[in-house]
Amino acid sequence: MMETEQLIRTLAADNPFQARPVGLVLVLALLAAAPVSLAIFFAGLGVRPDVMTAMHNPFFDLKFAVTLALAIAAIAISLHLSRPEASLQRWGWLLLIPAGLLVAGISGEMMLPQRLPMMTRLVGSNSKVCMTAIPLISLPLLAAALLGLRHGAPARPAMAGAIAGLLSAGLAATLYAAHCTDDSPLFVATWYTIATALVTAIGALAGSRVLRY
Amino acid sequence: MREGEDEWTGLMRLAISGDDAAYYRLLKAVTPVLRAAARRGLMRAGQPVDQAEDIVQDILLAVHLKRHTWDADAPFAPWLFAIARNKLIDSLRRRGRRVFVNIDDFAETLPGEPANQGAPANEVAAQLQTLPARQRDVLQSIAVEAASIKDTAAKFSMSEGAVRVALHRGLTSLTARLREQ
Fold first, then answer.
1. I need a surface site. Which of A149, A211, B99, B102 has the fewest CB within 10 A?
2. Where are the alpha helices (DSSP H) in A50-124?
């Protein structure tokens, strides 16, 4: 027998237990998963050999701006969505930043003379690796992000899971970008996006199961 | 805005700063409001209102375990009602399925019996019985026998810290079991 009055008394007795903020738990979980993703990256891919020259190419650098902007925006949104009364409305626009950077990059590249035709740049030479590596590297991070968000109380579990997918794909793509020799924003907009969409879908599916509170 | 909602916010701030009595008062104050909402929800869904108390307890547990997601600068009521709405919808969904199954069962085996006979027992109490012995003992001591943490520790020859851990773990597993049932 447990009357509501008795339950309330019990909850009050447990009041001294104060849980850690969701943001802290999320960051700790991501830090714990990072070595696993780094190990996958260095074991399977590694940094491209000409990285020192590549760094002088603004389109190489743009890849990191896009993927990091995606990861940071998704972290901010997921923290917001981890609260029960939150909706995407006020924060969703943050996702326009990585998209905008990518569009700016594509238009910038269009205005410059190019050695290779557009389709060649878009198709690139690493599309298969890209679509395999980004999801693989992101999986440990996705698990960590879901674990961190489980500590919260998301009103819409599938949505929060999808954002966790974007977050982990953004971080994974940041690593992958250091390996990939395709620097054209057209390549990034195509293959990185497909890989990210895949991880986002996995996140939404997993989130709808594990993020209920 | 409902009268008293500002008071709730104040009480919750006190609770978070470590005032257990304020927390108790807050939970007492919101319970009738939650109960009325649960009854309304059940009625609208065409389900027996005698299950309202299970929903209220479900909401209270979620409020307790998720209170760190409340932003102390924001009013408390919208946060509370968001949790309550979520739990109510969840419960109706679960119950909807089960009530349907129950009615079928009655139709098969006990023709003529009113379908609402044997309304579900208190769910928290039922799940309490499935907890590990130590957690169950501590919860029962504090909830049912109204013993303090200190008295409970003495009774089971545990440290007060161990009682607190068992209490919190017990509430966490109770909530997980209610969700998965």
1. B102
2. 51-54, 58-81, 96-111, 118-123
The residue that leads in pLDDT, B123 or A59, is A59
The domain containing residue B155 runs over which residues?
123-180
Question: Does B96 lie in the same domain as B18?
Answer: yes
From chain B, the residues in CB contact with A2 under 8 A are: 57, 122, 124-125, 128, 143-144
| ipTM tops the 0.90 cut | no
Domains of chain B: total: 2
Alpha-carbon distance B117 to B21, whole Å? Answer: 39
Residue A4 is encoded by which pair of tokens?
């509501």
Q: For the whole prediction, is pTM greater than 0.95?
A: no
Any B CB within 8 A of A87 CB: no
Query: For residue B50, how many other CB atoms are within 10 A of its CB?
Result: 12
CB–CB of B146 and A9 under 8 A? yes
Cα–Cα distance measured from residue A27 to residue A109, given in angstroms and rounded to the nearest whole number: 36
> Distance between the two ends of chain A, CA-based, in angstroms?
24
Residues B94 and B130 grouped into a single domain = no
d(CA B59, CA B80): 9
Rounded to a whole number of angstroms, the distance from the CA of B151 to the nearest CA of chain A is 13
**Each residue of B16-28: pLDDT tens digit?**
999 999 999 999 9
Q: Give B123-173 pLDDT, tens digit per residue.
A: 888 888 899 999 999 999 999 899 999 999 999 999 999 999 999 999 999
- Mean pLDDT value across residues B27-42: 91
Question: B147 and B94, same structural domain?
Answer: no
